[in-house]
Amino acid sequence: MTQPPRNRETIEHIQPLVAFTGAGISAESGVPTFRGEGGLWEQRRAQDLATPSAFARDPQLVWRFYRWRRNVIGGCLPNAAHRLLAEMEQRLEDFTLITQNVDGLHESAGSQNILHLHGSLWRLRCTRCAARWEGRDSLREDTLPRCPECSSLARPDVVWFGEPLELQLLADAQRAAARCRTMLVIGTSALVQPAAQLPMLAKSNSAQVIELNVDRTPLTAHADYSIQGPATITLKKWWDALQNQA
Ligand code: BV8
Ligand code: ZN
Q: What would the pLDDT profile of 175-188 be if each residue is shown by its tens digit?
């Protein structure tokens, strides 16, 4: 249900505002979520393929998985929730977008300052040297992509399960969570660590944590309140209610 923002929240009072997004915000764009019914590929779970050991064991299989995701997601467009977050970035003085997603839909919607905790599906990096490059075109089916600098095997520039997040990125996200007055948690199952700690960090620093999700999650009981429903509807409801308070 949508509760009116607490004690006549206005645009000034909700800032610093952090929006923290997961795969659910891209669901209405047609992007399979990790744990939803679309999250399987050839009967394998994403989290079993998004690991260094899966890549070491069978790089061809893992690249087939990422090629499939790039082909599926390459045809997806940002939805109204992505676009509204980009508008909020323009309208608000103190707004930070933190995403777990690797689909690039926040940039396509016009968001500029994004903390990408888990990397990007559209970037590749070398398994040997420090080279990183954009590779938006769909990868050739028959060969494994190689580094343009040293010709070593390339990998997707994402954070796999069992790999640490980039320290500076995580520190920036933790700082934004610790100093915010409001955190919108949009479309995440709040299961993947250390990202899932961010709403609790915000809460421990007296922020108002608002969950926007179609289901309950482990965060629901800790959120100040939840707005159940698809992100394109619930985010607009929250934003419109806030405007009407002004
Ligand atoms: C690390 C990039 C340490 C790859 C991703 C046991 C307990 C606790 C932790 C662990 C544990 N065992 C292992 C761990 C650690 C592990 C972890 O958390 N595992 C989980 C599964 C238990 N974490 C890690 O491995 C992390 N690294 O811990 O390193 C370390 C330190 C030093 C040295 C070495 C190691 C790395 C985690 C990053 C993994 N990479 N992505 C790729 O994409 O290919 S995470 C992946 O999951 C995606 O990024 C995704 O965004 C993310 C989280 O999932 P969600 O976004 O929440 O998506 P999900 O499908 O789960 O949920 C969708 C939600 O949306 C649902 O709630 C649904 O109801 C809702 N929804 C659906 N439709 C809508 C909607 N909401 C609104 N509107 C809608 N229309
Ligand atoms: Zn290289």
A: 999 999 999 999 99
pTM for this predicted structure: 0.94
Q: Which of 13, 116, 118, 222 is catalytic?
A: 118
Rounded distance, CA 181 to CA 18, Å?
8
Ligand 1 centre to CA of 193 (Å) is: 7
**Is 13 annotated as catalytic?**
no
Query: What is the rounded (10 degree) CA torsion for 202, 204, 208, 209?
Result: 60
Residue 34 Cα: closest atom of ligand 1: 60
pLDDT in tens, 59-93: 999 999 999 999 999 999 999 999 999 999 999 99
**Residue 70 phi, psi dihedral angles, 5° rounding:** -65, -40
For 223-236, write each residue's pLDDT tens digit. 999 999 999 999 99
Ligand 1, atom 73: closest residue by C-alpha: 24
Instruction: For residues 37 and 111, give the distance between their C-alpha atoms in angstroms, rounded to a whole number.
Output: 28
Show the tokens assigned to 10: 């206005």
The CA 183 to ligand 2 mean position distance, Å, reads 39
